[in-house]
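Can't attach files on this board, so I'm pasting raw text. These are the components:
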Amino acid sequence: MKKLWSGRFSEPVSKIVEGFTESISFDFRLWPYDIEGSIAHATMLARQGLITDSDKESIINGLLAIAEDIENGKFTFSKEDEDVHMNIENALSKRIGDAGRKLHTARSRNDQVALDVRLYLRKEITDILKLIQDFRHRLVTIAEQNLTTVMPGYTHMQIAQPVTLAHHLMAYVEMFGRDRQRLEDTLRRVNVMPLGACALSGTSLNIDRLYVAELLGFEAVTQNSMDSVSDRDFIVEFIANSSILFMHLSRMAEDFILWFTKEFAFVDYSDSCTTGSSIMPQKKNPDVLELMRGKTGRIYGCLINILTVMKALPLSYNRDMQEDKPSLFDAVDTVKHTLITINEFFKNIEFKKERLYNASFDNFSMATDVAEYLVKKGMPFRIAHETVGKIVRFCIENDKRLETLSLSQYVSFCDLIEDDIFDILKPEYSVNSKKSIGGTAPEETKKLIEKLKKTELYENNT
Amino acid sequence: MKKLWSGRFSEPVSKIVEGFTESISFDFRLWPYDIEGSIAHATMLARQGLITDSDKESIINGLLAIAEDIENGKFTFSKEDEDVHMNIENALSKRIGDAGRKLHTARSRNDQVALDVRLYLRKEITDILKLIQDFRHRLVTIAEQNLTTVMPGYTHMQIAQPVTLAHHLMAYVEMFGRDRQRLEDTLRRVNVMPLGACALSGTSLNIDRLYVAELLGFEAVTQNSMDSVSDRDFIVEFIANSSILFMHLSRMAEDFILWFTKEFAFVDYSDSCTTGSSIMPQKKNPDVLELMRGKTGRIYGCLINILTVMKALPLSYNRDMQEDKPSLFDAVDTVKHTLITINEFFKNIEFKKERLYNASFDNFSMATDVAEYLVKKGMPFRIAHETVGKIVRFCIENDKRLETLSLSQYVSFCDLIEDDIFDILKPEYSVNSKKSIGGTAPEETKKLIEKLKKTELYENNT
Amino acid sequence: MKKLWSGRFSEPVSKIVEGFTESISFDFRLWPYDIEGSIAHATMLARQGLITDSDKESIINGLLAIAEDIENGKFTFSKEDEDVHMNIENALSKRIGDAGRKLHTARSRNDQVALDVRLYLRKEITDILKLIQDFRHRLVTIAEQNLTTVMPGYTHMQIAQPVTLAHHLMAYVEMFGRDRQRLEDTLRRVNVMPLGACALSGTSLNIDRLYVAELLGFEAVTQNSMDSVSDRDFIVEFIANSSILFMHLSRMAEDFILWFTKEFAFVDYSDSCTTGSSIMPQKKNPDVLELMRGKTGRIYGCLINILTVMKALPLSYNRDMQEDKPSLFDAVDTVKHTLITINEFFKNIEFKKERLYNASFDNFSMATDVAEYLVKKGMPFRIAHETVGKIVRFCIENDKRLETLSLSQYVSFCDLIEDDIFDILKPEYSVNSKKSIGGTAPEETKKLIEKLKKTELYENNT
Amino acid sequence: MKKLWSGRFSEPVSKIVEGFTESISFDFRLWPYDIEGSIAHATMLARQGLITDSDKESIINGLLAIAEDIENGKFTFSKEDEDVHMNIENALSKRIGDAGRKLHTARSRNDQVALDVRLYLRKEITDILKLIQDFRHRLVTIAEQNLTTVMPGYTHMQIAQPVTLAHHLMAYVEMFGRDRQRLEDTLRRVNVMPLGACALSGTSLNIDRLYVAELLGFEAVTQNSMDSVSDRDFIVEFIANSSILFMHLSRMAEDFILWFTKEFAFVDYSDSCTTGSSIMPQKKNPDVLELMRGKTGRIYGCLINILTVMKALPLSYNRDMQEDKPSLFDAVDTVKHTLITINEFFKNIEFKKERLYNASFDNFSMATDVAEYLVKKGMPFRIAHETVGKIVRFCIENDKRLETLSLSQYVSFCDLIEDDIFDILKPEYSVNSKKSIGGTAPEETKKLIEKLKKTELYENNT
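---
Top answer:
Structure tokens for the assembled complex are below.
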């Protein structure tokens, strides 16, 4: 079959080359945006007198009919037509004749694909923002149920100080909140209209780019035609932000995989959200969490993919850029699938509160409380730190715990210590006392949640 | 020497372990921020009655004296003291005694290092924003001098259509403008105060985090103490944005390396900005551009470094995070050094205007103009495209150029073509006609530059 | 449907979780290896008396029937059965009853998937080695036709010294030769048999791993069962080697894209191997080369993907590892598709010999020959270099070329120069004189090619 | 100061450009190899009659004197002289006059730097191979002491089956054994002599490359001069292999960090190999392991750095390649420093054998043994698996363990079960029974270690 651009060519394209250069096998998913963009373009062309109203009607009806056929599985995409743009334009011309041959007036695939991808990504980011919010809502709900659930807080994977489960979960809410912010920043740069840049230099035809932008709901139009067709920043940005999101998801996965070990035993997951072994009859594995952790590699890989593609490409458009889509689509699908699944997964977590409480005062976790107690009694912090360090060493050597030392043993280390020391040697005291902004005190966490709810958290209408 | 945290330890740290875990060999550069943060912290502690005013005075004077010593090269950083924080705190206690031992009240290295890095990066991003603006100003200045300098525009590294040099340069201005925007977005997330999170759970001492934020010029305080000490998003974001910036720099480098080849010969660079060969006496090489292109790898590497470090780390702080600094510092230095150098480099470019003009109508670059001419005469674009394709094939086979065909030859392909065809077969006509928004017409570029100047471009006071 | 491992579970798996954890949508391609491995396993089980001969026969016949159905498109893979292993085992049990339920004796999916991927990759590397050799053969053939085709050699993308086209092409032959070597090294580590490791600890059943290895043509068996199920080195290695291969392909692509520019004009490509523009009727673009360059990002991305997946996974098997396959399959497909296409592409290159010759003595490319001439006359090289540098500067300032200076002008710079200087100022002299091993002299290149042919080059039976 | 290549230049290099392009600040470490290479080169030049014997003597003595000065800190490297090569050549000429100016005969920095880096890397890989062997020896020693130390084996971070500590440690020995193999493969490709390629095309002077190779202990010489100066494969390969090595180190780190948690409590580390907290007096953190895990990012980053640098560089040498060294040096230093430190760290690990034993039969870890027991009694494996799954579920619901069920309870699930079931419900029985090759049975591990010792393991004289 003849290519739409074949006028100057004397030989048809080799089948091997055609198979290597086609993109329809993956860019077909852009069809709704390609058709939406073409309808807006045709509407503008007619308004500017570049095509007749009757041509416009034919084009729009033809495109809508193609859309319907695609939706109903009646449209065959062909590799000979290379990409989604040529497949649709070619089908249109076959259906409606010369009017179809006017659609590409003042347009190149270079600006057309930029438009389609921006429309696609605008939609997908909007969906992802909603999924992030859904998951943050779930975390907040669980946090609210666990404001006073005491558990060990860790640094270096060693028990450090008692915290609350709510506080731990709200750390993720903060992390995913920043992810949301970053994607919103990116959305502003996605939401700019490139059509009209044509091949790279604009056009001598009297088009109206602002009108197309208005029709398609864009906030602005691109300001330089060469940049318009060679810019893929918005894709890189999206995947970079997705990488940070997945970095967060992998950290959360790690926490919950750890907590599900026999050794930690902080949580249990529903049988419906775990899987078994083909050989070991007793196994119940947290595969969802492991796969979420593993898919981080996929997103980091997508990021390096697009960054490498774009490295050192001279202006303006180069065919290398066709390779932007497989990694973009993979990133979008992986982000969405994972957010939906982890949200489902979190419906069914059982926290083992007694175990969490008992672990919370393991490993001398209240040693810092004792040091702060000494500071309040007037001891310089650095000396208090050393004093408590010695008490801990004594406990280790004598197989004691901070709460089982006698007052006289305490006093032998420091005579500032009095009977009130035992009041503070309780995990619940420890967490209640951390009232600094963002500290783990339940009342502070409650305040933060209420504040969040009044701001952007419960809005989920992006 | 005894570590400040050694109370509970019965053996000193092995020298090999000390050498592996120390960070002072690279984090010493944070000293001004460490001291600035400690002064604010001490000021707050005194105001809250956690230390006396006289302790505060001693601390501040001691810290200022240390700062002076460091600046004058009279301070020896020691690996035994591990990091910049311990080096300074330890020196302070040695100098001023017990007051120094109170400085670490309600503070951990976990929140302290987060504070220091945020102060450091806030300063560096501000500097980088200025350097980006400086370079954009230079590009705009050159563009203004070349509004009507016609040159070939490329897609697929093939001459595509005539553009102006100004238009080409303004594409970079757009690209670096987005880089600036992204870094400003990041700056908002850098400019949040983490101190007071302490180890991970906040403190039972009555601190005032908002006052510390005010003293240090932060817009907000972090809202969750666990997140405060385990968050490195702001570093990842900065390096991701730097990666996109370098992707742009590498593309510009590629253009200017190409243009400097004997074959393109579009530009000449000053002898003062090029280098020679140790063996080939005639060589004059564009090393600055090549190194700029090559350093893209460095920044991409920094990005993968920090993303890998953070992957799947459970909450909250883990020592792996110490590895955030070498890549951050390398990225900051590379970005700044490169922007300064490329700005210098662009002072001395000579554009070969005659060569640019002559190349601009090579490769039948005005074929699209002919197609648009036919569209204006009423031919559907797709048919116009094919018709001009055939004309081009005829030219190739007969060794002709579009501007050397006779009218009768044109008419033999399409009787819509008239004598006015020759009016459009001039590169200057071609560029003047591209008046669509962002098109290459000089008047359009001029308008864009004027618009930019009124907005954020000439502000460089970030 | 009930999972094969569901004995200990009280609830079925959620559909969302099933969709997230399944791998059949991509690992179905392992089916021939899964069946091959199962047949060998059953053969061994029977020989060891762990199943009866009649069970073995049923199993083998059942598996062969399944294979036939898959090949004929009559087998439906189901997500409920998770992966290719369970799909086939489950189908087998349905078809042949209890004998099928014995197949998984002394086997886990953990060692089974390791076996399948090793069988798959062994086959694919063997194919890729052949494709690399085919392409090297093509390059050698073109080199042999161009032993004396003189062209400019470049450093810093600046004309440096004359070389031959054969010499330039043989540089790629060396590069791809190392790629072949590396893949052969990797193949040794792929070709090790993991089955029998079972879940992670081996088995108490009396199996014969060496016999399975023999049946499947493996050179060795793995030596530690925990390592056997958690090792993915062979995948990382393969993708790392593919990354270097693509680095080479991207460099070659860049050369040939440059050479196809109007400005270089060193080559022409067949219309059948290039593509056009949707808007610009004259365009003929080297898309194959651009896409080959772009796909480098894809392979680098696959490498970061698998490295990230494996980072910090504790022993032994973790479900994250399921994410090894999408990147492995993508890398294999991309490598093969690209090698086939570039080989096709090189069938049709036309080198423009006159243009190559004329460019070869541009940019004072023989200046080094003059310096070596002076060395032969007794001048220290460093002084010769500087002297020729001054001659070049004189030429630039006076718009001369080295071959158009008069003898007296030469002598004014250095009285060692005599009339024989003009003998060497010919590109063919220059290349002929570079007789050092690996130098560009045609006779040296010829010798190298003959040597290569006697060694491994023309063997393509790996 | 005048550059050695400045003959054709009319202006000195700008200071900013000089600062950006210099490499002496990092390539100075190549000085011993630069001098070694230059001595060999001069020796060859004299033997070929290209310089006199007396010049050769002067050069060698001059170079040795420079080497001594550098070692004694009496030599000042200068940025004006750009790189290590020019610094040394320039100093030599200043010291010995014209003889020094002859050293660069038939040599370019392009082949010189390739030589220096190959000499450097050959040395470093040899050192690293030794360090890997040292560490493998340490692991084997600990394994030999723990052949019968039973512990839980994990999949999905869930207790799976009992294994021995020796078996677990030998998995690492296998992993690091492959790392060693890969580096040896790379060493073959490093150990090839590039000098004589000169700028890119070889030389017209009568040099003897084989003699230089012999003097410097190279096994072969490069076969194509363009490839010789543009090849950086050996660097990429080294860093790729280092990435896999660090992937292994990060996995081992993760195991040992987990085992050191209070919850696992499998190991204790010496106070001399751990560090404390600035705020929490009780903390003892496994920083060495965390930093080892974190430095994985550094090496992955180095890999992406060099791969990105090399992407799409046209032949032959480009200045971008100067950026190969910072990442190579960083990778070499990090690998060596980490191997030395982890070896030290492993001197002091205390394994808590009782805790390991008790954990080994947690989580129904012998369920697979029961299934294999049933297989031996004649039940098809898949049915045995399901039967045991139901027994496990019964245990969970009734808070029982496999070893505390009564025979009648067992029989109620399957009447094949007899009194001998209790013989196998011991972790030591479980591990002893895994006698398949590479299985966890102590006698099998012992056999493997003895086999290893006879082969390459105890050779450490690479």
